[in-house]
Amino acid sequence: MKVTRAALPFLPFCQRLLPSRLAGLSLALLKATALEFAILAGHLLLYPSGITNERRPTPTPPSPSSPDLLESPDSPHPADTARLPAQAKPPVVLLHGFIDNRSVFVLLRRSLAQHGRQQIESLNYSPLTCDIRTAAELLGRHIEEMCERTGYEQVDVVGHSLGGLIARYYVQRLGGDARVRTLVTLGTPHAGTRVAPLANAHPIVRQMRPDSPVIEELTQPAPGCRTQFVSFWSDLDRVMDPLESACIDHPDLKVQNVQVTGIGHLALPVHPAVAAGIRQALDTPGTETGSADHADGLTVA
Question: Coil, helix or strand for 274?
Answer without folding.
Answer: helix
